[in-house]
């Protein structure tokens, strides 16, 4: 089976990325609605009389914090969405048989930056976890696989940059 072009592995992976992209947008919308509901409930608990209980005051006071946690989760989904969007665009060029498209360099760099940002965001959540007494304290660890992936993506971006340069030179000599 071919790796590039129509009907290849790259076109199959592009379809999978399209499905994941749609699922991420749906998830982001659901998280947005949950943030809105948490904020509405915290500012006006009478909006949801069906869920009233003895713990309404406690839930209402934690609403903004819960909304903040959901917002952080939504930002993580947004970061993954940016990565998947860039991958989809890279796979469009692979399916077209043009792997060294000049825009793929910037797309790979963006993927590397987003992977690094997601990992740094994970450290920030660990740093803020003492403010959330109901969350079990987990000691941070450095995920070498994540940082290795960031470095690999940046190296691949440079390889694609060099490939795009060689392609330009070949087009000029013809």
Residues in β-strands, percent: under 5%
The helix tally amounts to 4
Total strands: the figure is 0
The rough form would be described as: elongated
* N-to-C CA distance: 30 Å
Q: Could you give the order of the helices and strands?
A: HHHH
Radius of gyration: 22 Å
Return the average pLDDT rounded to an integer: 84
Oligomer: single chain
**Major sheet description:** none
Q: Low-confidence parts, pLDDT < 50 over ≥5 residues?
A: none
As a percent range, the share of helical residues equals over 70%
The chain-level structural class is: mainly alpha
Overview of the structural elements:
The chain has four helices and no strands. Helix 1 (9-43) runs antiparallel to helix 2, helix 2 (56-95) packs antiparallel against helix 3 (103-128) and helix 3 runs antiparallel to helix 4. The chain has helices at 9-43, 56-95, 103-128, 144-173. The longest helix is centred in the middle third of the chain and has 40 residues, at 56-95. With 174 residues, it is an all-alpha fold.
Entry summary:
With 174 residues, this protein is mostly helical. The chain contains four helices and no strands.
Provide keyphrases for this structure.
174 residues, mainly alpha
What order do the helices and strands come in, and which of them pair?
Blueprint: H1 9-43, H2 56-95, H3 103-128, H4 144-173
């Amino acid at each position: 089976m071919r790796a590039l072009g129509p009907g290849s592995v790259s076109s199959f992976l592009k379809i999978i990325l399209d499905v994941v992209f749609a699922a991420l947008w749906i998830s982001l919308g659901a998280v947005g609605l949950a943030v809105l509901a948490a904020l509405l409930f915290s500012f006006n608990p009478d909006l949801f009389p069906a869920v009233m209980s003895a713990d309404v005051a406690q839930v209402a006071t934690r609403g903004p914090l819960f909304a903040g946690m959901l917002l952080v989760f939504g930002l993580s989904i947004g970061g993954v969405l940016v990565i998947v969007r860039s991958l989809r665009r890279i796979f469009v060029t692979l399916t077209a048989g043009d792997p060294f498209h000049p825009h793929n360099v910037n797309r790979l760099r963006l993927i590397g930056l987003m992977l690094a940002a997601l990992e740094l965001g994970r450290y920030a959540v660990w740093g803020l976890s003492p403010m959330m007494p109901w969350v079990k304290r987990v000691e941070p660890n450095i995920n070498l696989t994540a940082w290795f992936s960031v470095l690999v993506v940046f190296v691949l971006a440079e390889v694609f940059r060099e490939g795009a340069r060689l392609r330009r030179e070949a087009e000029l000599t013809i």
